[in-house]
Amino acid sequence: MAEFSKGAKIPLKIGGQATVKKKLGEGGQGAVYLVENAGKDYALKWYHKQPSEKFLKNLANNISKGKPNDAFLWPEILTEQFKGSFGYLMALRSPEYKDFSEFLLAKTKFKNLSTMLAAAMQICEGFKQLHRKGYNYQDLNDGNFFINPQTGKVLICDNDNVSEYGHSSGIAGKSRYMAPEIVMGVSKPDQWTDLFSLSVILFLLFFNNHPLEGLLTTSIPCMTEKLEKKLYGENPVFIWDDNDKSNRPVRGIHNNVIKRWGIFPELLQDTFRKAFSKEKMTVASERQTRVMEIEWNKVFIAMRNTLAPCPFCKNETYININEPASQCMNCGKPIPKPNLLQLGKEKIVLMNGAKLYASTTNDNGNETTVTGEVIVDSTNRDLLVIKNLSNDIWIGFTRTGVQKNVEPNQIIPVKQGIKINFQGGKQSEII
Question: How far is CA 104 from each of CA 120, 194, 227, rounded to the nearest angstrom?
Answer without folding.
Answer: 14, 21, 24
